[in-house]
């Protein structure tokens, strides 16, 4: 049995996920395979709500938080925890790269948008993503929709989702969209300045 971190968190789950995802990308798969196999890896990660350090699970009273958990050294992918306070939501926004979203705690609503007659309109019904579920977004597949709006499904509790993107997402030039469809460029950055230390194996080695 793997020894938990002194915080009591099973931080090794995040390490194994990152190692597995990097190994997947090492094989230079196409995007469809990344979303399929990467989605399966993310589903395994969010099946357990015992690994995310408390520092990266803190809500803000006024806005959602975006905590960087890992950025690949070649910026092939990044892993982020999104923490939603009660009732919080994003603006309508795009990603410009592929992404995977897995709900770790609580639940989220996700509404896709598309262009119709030069107007940005909702596409399909608003989806409810519950803990353990994973969905994909990409600008390269019309059925997956790159433009959406996400909100906490609860008005009285925090929800947390784990996102994986095909870039260092906090540095990507993207857009939010006004109600009239006007595009406003933005770069999201991150809410944290430190990362979880998933590579300190001393405790595990001492117990073996």
Helix content: 10-25%
- Unreliable residue stretches: none
How do the strands line up in the largest sheet?
A: 1-2-9-4-7
Task: Determine Rg (CA atoms, Å).
Answer: 17 Å
For the largest beta-sheet, the strand count, sense and barrel status come to: 5 strands, antiparallel
Count of DSSP strands: 11
What is the chain-wise order of helices and strands?
A: HHEEEEEEEEEEEH
- Put simply, the count of helices is 3
Head-to-tail CA distance between termini = 9 Å
Broad structural category: alpha+beta
Mean model confidence by pLDDT: 93
Shape: globular
Strand content: 25-35%
Structural key phrases:
208 residues; alpha+beta; five-stranded antiparallel sheet; three-stranded antiparallel sheet; 3 helices
Account of the 3D structure:
- This protein has three helices and eleven strands; from the N terminus they run ααβββββββββββα.
- The strands form three sheets. Strands 1-2-9-4-7 form a five-stranded antiparallel β-sheet, with helices on one face. Strands 3-10-11 form a three-stranded antiparallel β-sheet, with no helix packed on it. Strands 6-5-8 form a three-stranded antiparallel β-sheet, with no helix packed on it.
- The longest helix has 16 residues, at 31-46.
- The model has no long low-confidence stretch (mean pLDDT 93).
- With 208 residues, it is an alpha+beta fold.
- The chain has helices at 12-26, 31-46, 202-207, and strands at residues 65-71, 78-84, 92-93, 99-105, 107-116, 119-130, 134-137, 147-152, 159-165, 174-177, 183-186.
């Amino acid at each position: 049995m793997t020894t938990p971190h002194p915080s009591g968190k099973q931080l090794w789950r995040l390490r194994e996920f990152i190692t597995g995802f990097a190994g997947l990308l090492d094989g230079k798969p196409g995007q469809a395979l990344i979303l399929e196999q990467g989605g399966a890896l993310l589903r395994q990660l969010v099946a357990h709500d015992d690994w995310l350090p408390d520092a990266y699970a803190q809500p803000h009273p006024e806005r959602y938080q975006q905590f960087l958990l890992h950025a690949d050294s070649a910026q092939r992918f990044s892993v982020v925890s999104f923490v939603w306070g009660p009732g919080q939501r994003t603006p309508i926004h795009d990603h410009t790269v592929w992404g995977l979203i897995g709900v770790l705690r609580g639940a989220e609503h996700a509404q896709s948008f598309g262009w119709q007659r030069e107007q940005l309109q909702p596409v399909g019904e608003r989806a409810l993503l519950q803990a353990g579920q994973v969905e994909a977004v990409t600008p390269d597949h019309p059925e997956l929709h790159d433009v959406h709006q996400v909100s906490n499904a609860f008005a009285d509790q925090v929800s947390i989702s784990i996102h994986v993107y095909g870039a260092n997402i906090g540095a990507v030039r993207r857009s939010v969209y006004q109600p009239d469809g006007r595009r406003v460029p933005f770069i999201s950055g991150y809410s944290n300045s430190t990362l979880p230390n998933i590579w300190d194996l001393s405790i595990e080695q001492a117990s073996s």
